[in-house]
Automatic annotation (TrEMBL), chain A:
The keyword Membrane applies. Pfam families: DUF7541. It comes from Haloferax marisrubri. This is Cox cluster protein. Keywords: Membrane, Transmembrane, Transmembrane helix.
């Protein structure tokens, strides 16, 4: 700060992801707590997608698809834990598993189509 | 019906996600940044270019990761929450103007009571502190930004959903009613046991919101610890780290140990309520909750009071014309309070029938914690002693802080003594005790900071006379309201009731009058704050408080001075602000007249 006041004004100024991470958490929590399947899936997708987005933006991961897969595996394990063990929260478990699968699908779609398009301009 | 509901939700969720994706696609096109972790190995290379400017308008605020912007967001959020919590309690105080149930129902009173407490502690107290720390810690320690700017943004954005969830019971949602558990959420009431209505989803929503605010606070704390440890300028050593950073560092440590515990306890409670676990319904479950809650709860009160103490320790010497007396001991006492605050929690449980030997040890530590608190108080007083005191508005609030903190602290010491507590527990005396601290001290320090740094974050000066009105109305209102409560407690008036015996009427009316005086003061504050922000005199001088005269300038003012000098080349600000900053002639007489007014 001493050398260049106002430096932080010109420096990593904005990121679109934090808002959506912060929205994804409560939406998925609400869905899982009250057993609202669509909210749980949607919230987890929002959360997972934004986490991957922010990780990539800040350069912590190199490949979208690998980050998505890693996150999906964690979701899947958690969902399976809910659905297939003695905890037996079956609907909620399936919601998490569904989110895991959709996350991977979304990641693949992004990799195959969206990113290609982006790079053309 | 059920299927239709699910279908509607699915469609809604789907549309929402698509909207988000579409918005992101657009944002990603104009968005610009430098990757923080410096990897530069990201796949979509076309997207990487250094930004010269923040985006404009609402999008700037939604996407910012700049610590100053986030500080402003925290501040705005906290002041909105302060207004909400304040209006809630005005309603309650009006209801309490007469002994019987008149204006609002008893259940609605209980709902307001619960929300007022949680709003003030978690949605006003913690965020207003985060506002100052986000804005000023990086400036004070010479860092470019926080260690994790994006985490910082996430921590803030968790708070608006938290507020919506905490207040959800008041919204017109079918079948959802507000929680009436009080902020301590004691089981079995909060577990929904019995014939009451606390099994309602409104309580679950409130618990979720509280949990979310805890996640936010924890993220912020990790960020501050990392920032203060790793981002300091080479010239800032531990030996000359400023007092505010010390208190934030200590506070963050407390948050790190206290909030995750609250989070876990809340999850356990949610499991009890919704999934048939029995953490708090087996034998001893109620006491278990109290232990868990207060193990968090007592450190929480120091989480809330340490940074305000830091603000006062920073601001008060500037207007006493001398350095903080016994700086080292103020730091040591901060650390001592931080450690001791984890050893006193059961002083909230003296009346529960826990083992008397345990009780005695908690009494001992509670009395001991008064010592470092007193050390600070003496240091503030000694700093002012024979000083060159300038009674500016921030200074008045600092002196008010010290005065109210003494009353709040001394009443606390009495409560820490078991025999006294057994008489006064669960009376208005306790309410008076902690409000002297949360309103009389914490909120006062918040105002001191808001006025002191007003020129930095607005570029303008507030209206001095209105500032003084705000102080005096707040000071008189606080003491009227809460001293009346202390007396009510001596008289045996129990806390948390919407109605009372006629013999308490006079003191309750005094307290209500005090609360209304407070309300008038805060309306003046809002007016002054908003109007001065929009139309106040522009500050042309990087040292509006003339700190240089006593050689008391701190880093954030140096930064501000340079910012004023380099305003034209500073690419980060809004265009409009730039134009006016650069386009106006320097008017030093104006600024001088202002500070002379305030002196
Ligand atoms: C000087 C040190 C202090 C001591 C010895 C002390 C002691 C106590 C004791 C013994 C109680 C329990 C009273 C009861 O319920 O019977 C209490 C309550 C409380 N104190 Fe303090 N206190 C001190 C400072 C503070 C500070 C600095 C704060 C706030 C930042 C604070 C906030 C509270 C709150 C919120 C309660 C009420 C909790 C509730 O039951 O809702 N105290 N204090
Ligand atoms: Cu305590």
């Amino acid at each position: 700060m001493d050398e260049a006041p106002g430096l932080s004004d010109q420096y990593r100024t904005a990121s679109p992801w934090p808002v959506f991470i912060a929205l994804g958490i409560p939406i998925s929590e609400l869905g899982l707590l009250f057993g609202l399947f669509p909210l749980a899936v949607g919230g987890l997708l929002l959360f997972g997608g934004s986490v991957v987005g922010i990780l990539k933006e800040s350069g912590y991961v190199a490949s979208t698809i690998r980050a998505v897969t890693a996150l999906a595996v964690i979701f899947f394990a958690f969902g399976a834990g809910l659905a297939f063990t003695d905890i037996a929260l079956v609907t909620r478990g399936y919601a998490v598993i569904a989110a895991a699968i959709l996350l991977v699908v979304g990641g693949v779609v992004f990799e195959l189509f969206v990113r290609e398009q982006r790079q053309t301009f | 019906m059920e299927v239709n509901g699910q279908l509607a939700l699915t469609v809604l969720m789907g549309v929402f996600l698509i909207a988000v994706a579409a918005w992101l696609a657009r944002v990603e096109d104009w968005r610009s940044y430098t990757p923080l972790a410096g990897g530069g190995t990201v796949g979509g290379t076309a997207e990487q270019y250094v930004s010269e400017e923040k985006p404009s308008g609402v999008i700037r605020w939604l996407t910012t990761v700049d610590h100053k912007d986030i500080g402003m967001l925290y501040g705005a959020y906290a002041l909105v929450a302060f207004a909400v919590g304040g209006l809630m309690v005005v309603l309650m105080r009006i209801e309490l103007a007469d002994p019987s149930m008149t204006l609002i129902s008893n259940t609605f009173y209980n709902s307001l009571l619960t929300s007022h407490g949680i709003t003030m502690l978690f949605l006003f107290g913690t965020p207003i502190i985060a506002a100052f720390s986000n804005y000023f810690i990086p400036l004070l320690i010479g860092a470019d930004d926080m260690a994790f700017p994006r985490i910082n943004a996430i921590a803030f954005w968790l708070l608006p959903p938290a507020a919506l969830l905490i207040w959800a019971g008041f919204f017109p949602i079918p079948d959802v009613i507000p929680a009436q558990t009080a902020w301590t959420m004691y089981t079995p009431l909060s577990a929904g046991v019995g014939s009451g209505n606390q099994m309602n989803a409104g309580v679950d929503l409130m618990l979720l919101g509280l949990h979310l605010s805890g996640v936010s606070a924890t993220m912020g704390a990790i960020n501050f610890i990392a920032t203060i440890f790793t981002e300091r300028n080479e010239k800032v050593s531990w030996a000359n780290l400023d007092i505010f950073s010390w208190t934030i560092l200590t506070q963050s440590g407390l948050i790190l140990f206290a909030f995750p515990l609250l989070g876990s306890a809340i999850v356990m409670l949610l499991l009890d309520r919704n999934f048939g676990t029995m953490f708090f319904s087996v034998d001893g479950g109620a006491i278990l909750w109290q232990h868990l809650f207060w193990f968090f709860g007592h450190p929480e009160v120091y989480i809330l009071v340490l940074p305000p103490m830091g603000i006062v320790s920073l601001v008060l010497p500037r207007f006493a014309g001398r350095r903080l007396f016994g700086f080292k001991f103020v730091v040591y006492s901060t650390l001592a309070i931080g450690v001791l605050s984890f050893g006193v929690w059961a002083h909230h449980m003296f009346a529960t029938g826990i083992d008397p030997r345990l009780r005695a040890s908690f009494m001992a530590v509670s009395l001991a914690i008064a010592i470092p608190s007193a050390v600070k108080t003496f240091n503030w007083i000694t700093t002012m002693w024979n000083g060159k005191i300038r009674l500016t508005t921030p200074m008045l609030f600092c002196i008010g802080f010290v005065s109210n903190f003494i009353i709040g602290g001394v009443t606390g010491v009495f409560l820490a003594s078991i025999p006294v507590d057994l008489v006064l527990h669960d009376t208005y005396y306790v309410v008076g005790h902690f409000h002297y601290i949360v309103m009389g001290a914490i909120a006062f320090a918040g105002f001191a900071g808001l006025y002191y740094w007003f020129p930095i974050y607005t570029g303008r000066m507030y209206q001095v006379t209105l500032g003084k009105w705000h102080f005096w109305l707040s000071m008189v209102g606080t003491n009227l309201t809460f001293f009346a409560m202390i007396l009510l407690g001596y008289g045996g008036m129990p806390r948390r009731y919407a109605t009372y015996l006629p013999q308490f009427a006079t003191l309750h009316q005094v307290a209500t009058v005090g609360a209304l005086i407070l309300l008038v003061g805060q309306i003046i504050f809002v007016w002054n704050f908003v109007q001065s922000w929009l139309e106040g005199r522009e500050v042309q001088d990087g040292d509006p408080w003339d700190l240089a005269d006593d050689d008391l300038v701190t880093a954030e003012w140096t930064w501000f001075e340079r910012k004023l000098e380099t305003a034209v080349t500073d690419g980060g600000e809004d265009e409009t602000e730039l134009a006016t900053d650069g386009g106006q002639t320097v008017d030093d007489t104006d600024a001088d007249a202002e500070s002379a007014d305030d002196a």
